[in-house]
Design brief:
The structure is a single chain. By secondary structure, this protein is an alpha+beta fold. The chain contains 3 helices and 11 strands. Strand 6 and strand 7 form a beta hairpin. The chain is elongated. The N terminus is likely disordered.
Length: 202
């Protein structure tokens, strides 16, 4: 009886320990409805780490996936615009590498900071990088993320609980109604005629 109780408490404790750090990655677009020709920014954010304690993030290698028929890739911005790069806390820099294909962007970053500094100084939630894109066609585009490798301050594997993508809808560029366009042309014609009459009277 006591053995079963002990085993049950041990399993419960292990479950609570694992759930205490349910690490998630979310893709967040600055706009979810745009027009053709507009630019968008999609942040890749990690959460569920601990502020100023283990676990901390030390390395990641991910693929950012998008609909190439609707969006053109422009550039990648490393780090968090508010908190700074949380994999470069001491100013030593980090190894950053990116490459792109038809409908994906690969992003890899390795921190040069000491493992203890990462655990003591790193925030529990921050943006890994942001992707800038341009909308080129009408439709509804999905963005997703594939994790190749993600590790803690010591390079050990981190378990990701959830990865949440996002969707951006692209509409056509709004144009003036024909009646409004005719009215505008009429006003311009009147202005031009008045200007011509004014010159002829001088």
């Amino acid at each position: 009886m006591m053995k079963k109780l002990f085993a049950g408490l041990l399993a419960l404790g292990l479950s609570l320990s694992l759930n205490a750090h349910a690490i998630s990655i979310d893709l967040i677009a600055n706009q979810t409805a745009v027009n053709v020709g507009d630019n968008i920014e999609v942040q890749v954010r990690i959460s569920g780490l601990s502020d100023a304690s283990a676990p901390a993030l030390g390395v990641y290698d991910v693929n950012f996936n998008y609909d190439a028929s609707l969006f053109n890739f422009s550039s990648i911005l490393w780090g968090d615009s508010t908190l700074g790069n949380q994999l470069d806390l001491n100013g030593f820099g980090s190894l950053q590498d990116s490459s792109s294909g038809l409908d994906w962007l690969s992003a890899l970053e390795i921190s040069f900071d000491d493992a203890l500094d990462l655990e003591l100084l790193q925030a529990g939630e921050f943006t890994l990088f942001s992707v800038l894109l341009n909308a080129v066609a009408i439709g509804s585009g999905n963005f997703s993320l594939t994790v190749n490798t993600i590790g803690d301050a010591y390079g050990n594997d981190l378990s990701i609980d959830t990865i949440t993508g996002t969707t951006v809808n692209v509409a056509s560029i709004s144009v003036p109604e024909p009646s409004s366009l005719l009215l505008l042309l009429g006003m311009l014609a009147v202005i031009a005629l008045r200007a011509k009459m004014s010159q002829s009277q001088k």
